[in-house]
Amino acid sequence: MKKHINLFLLATENLLRHKTKSVVVSLCIIAILLPFITAIAISEGVRLQSLSSVEESADLYLTFDEFGRNAAIPLKHLDEVKEVFGVKKAVPRIIGRCYLQDKLAVIVGIGKEHLPESTSLISGRIFENVNEVVVGNDLAEHFNLNIGDQLSMRGQNRKLFTVVGFFSSASNIWSASTLFMSFGDAGELFGKYGIATDIQLYSVPGHNAEIATELYYIFQGEPYRLQDKDMIELYVKKGFMLKEGIFTALYTVAFALGIPAILVASGFGLSERRKEIGIMKATGWQTLEVLELISFEQLLISLFGATTAILLSIIWMKCFNGAFISQFFIGEINMLPEFVVPARFLPLPCILSFFFAIILTMVGSIYSSWRASTESPVAALK
Fold this sequence. Notes:
By secondary structure, this protein is α+β, with helices and mostly antiparallel strands. It has twelve helices and 13 strands. It folds into two domains: about 1-50 and about 240-380, no CATH class; about 80-220, no CATH class.
């Protein structure tokens, strides 16, 4: 045990003695791992928010089908749907997008009593009268809105809306540019009457199959679609798999940054390292002892590089809000997000980053060191 401790201490001294090589290799490791760790943290943060939103929402979603996609559903059967056994409540809503000046906003038309539980007011009140809206705090800050201000949407029916409240957008990223209004106001805004984007069905547990059967008879001959919470969750997960796949493809190109690390670890100062190994062999060192020393060096430099990359990733998210990388995982945002980007740092990606770093450095050093240690001391000292 004492011999291994001495080798570990000697490896530390070698890294401090060859500062240039240690710094360059560490920087290469950090350059490779930093985007990877940050991207995984953003992906996990957004995924968690998405799944939480799905979990707190309806059990079933009722829409019409058009070309294999969700389409607006008429409300003529709404009263019948509400009477279906097992349905606790049926909530029609309108979700659309339009421009508020030069910024794309999400419009949600829904009954005030059916607002999502995660919607927490910062100031003001919930809309109660016609043409009243509640605005996301980030959107309000962007336009410097105050309670009582009036606004209109570009390219839509020129209705004037009065701001009566602001809600926090910390609960999820999609509420950053959202306006809540009554269902009737949203229909008038888009010029769509008697239809909804979807009808949310909250059901008694275990009655989804019975509800599906009843809806079949209600909508017989009409192109309706019924999707449950598990299906929506599957869509969310597939969407993130697609985003992660795109990032992986781009990151594979960036993996070329690992080449300098390998070259530096294996080639920079190689003649000096060969001489050191030759002296070790001449003074009685065994090949396994030399390789153990080199392994300790790579272990330390990998641990330092991976730990630094994790700390810088946390700083990147907490201080710079995931600038320049968030747009890979969150659609339609700028390189500098205007809302708090969620991030979730899990142990497994951090551990994998360390193993990735140590494999990278080992590839660049162990073979060359083994070649030098198996040569005769005279040849290594030349």
